[in-house]
Amino acid sequence: MKLQRKNRRALTLGALAVSGALALTACGSDDTSGGGEGSGKETAANANIKCDDAKGQLLANGSSAQANAIQTWVKAYSTACKDVQINYKPEGSGAGVTAFLQGQTAFAGSDSALKPEEIAESKKVCKDSQAIDLPMVGGPIAVGYNVPGVEDLVLDAKTLAEIFDNKISKWNDKAIEKLNPDAKLPDTKIQAFHRSDESGTTDNFTKYLKAAAPDSWSHEPDKAWAAKGGQSAQGSSGVAQQVKQTAGAISYMELSYAKDGINTVALDTGAGDPVEASVENATKAIADAKVVGKGKDLALELNYATKAEGAYPITLVTYEIVCEKGNKAETLPATKSFLTYIASQEGQDTLADQGYAPIPAEINTKVRETIASLS
């Protein structure tokens, strides 16, 4: 029976092809909707944003996975808090953490929680304290592909591992045919693309391969791509563009970037039915996560090998990384004000329409309490 897909693109707004600085300020937010239901929601949300003593410029860097969410948040926040100028550079999780640890930014966005050595290093920037992870954005990492004539494709962890490790090279390989008996798979070379930059998306994708197909994926999960072969592109927008324009291509990207003709793989996880990359299915996976951070650090442990019905296992959580104490006095009010808004119900409610999964309420309550205590 042919797999009946949900309308994936109906779940997402068009993702911006973000490159360079995402500089979003109050004076640059005048491209708001001209009216109707959407503008009413925005007005209501803006009315609940508390600016307090926030002012000046707020610099941040990091995850391109959350760039589309940040863009929406900054637009709403800047409309309410006109004395704050926010400049977020979506240069990847690795670049974001590096910039933060060098004291260049007020906070960083990362699709992976800080490593112990990074927490130790943060004590140089966070006076008498350390950096902490605040889970803020969730969502599925979709596996996008471009195989002419094939709109429904099922793959499992083993097959994906062998594709991205250059062991399966043709789309009509027997392993792929076995999972897709009704598809007309062409004798087309597979063009596997991975991120060229250090990326939390890569880290989470390879954690899935390692957890769900340990015999087929020998590389240790990391922000930097470790397997040989394949081709690379910069950022989430870069790999998405390559998939869109290259016949035979496949890559991994956040759902919000799988747009405009990019089909996505359904995963055979061992559950009763293949699982689609969707906000709903990612939320089921995140809800099963455990808080493993110490103290006020809220780092999560995801179950990448889940076989639960309807749970999409290639899911990431993007953290905002900030000092628990010792934040710079000139940026602390704006940092707390902005983070308070994006963790609020209004802020989280904007995520689903963009292909992101809101952080489960139980975890988000702890996030809000921690933001309120920043100093």
UniProtKB/TrEMBL annotation:
Residues 219-239 are annotated as: Disordered. Keywords: Phosphate transport, Signal, Transport. One of its GO terms (biological process) is phosphate ion transmembrane transport. Transmembrane segments: none annotated. GO terms for cellular component: ATP-binding cassette (ABC) transporter complex. Residues 54-346 form the PBP domain. The keyword Cytoplasm does not apply. Residues 1-23 form the signal peptide. It comes from the Bacteria. Phosphate binds at S63, S64, A65, S93, D111, S199, G200, T201. It holds the Pfam family PBP_like_2. One of its GO terms (molecular function) is phosphate ion binding. Residues 226-239 have a biased composition (Low complexity). PANTHER family: PHOSPHATE-BINDING PROTEIN PSTS. Belongs to the PstS family. This is Phosphate-binding protein. It comes from Streptomyces triticagri.
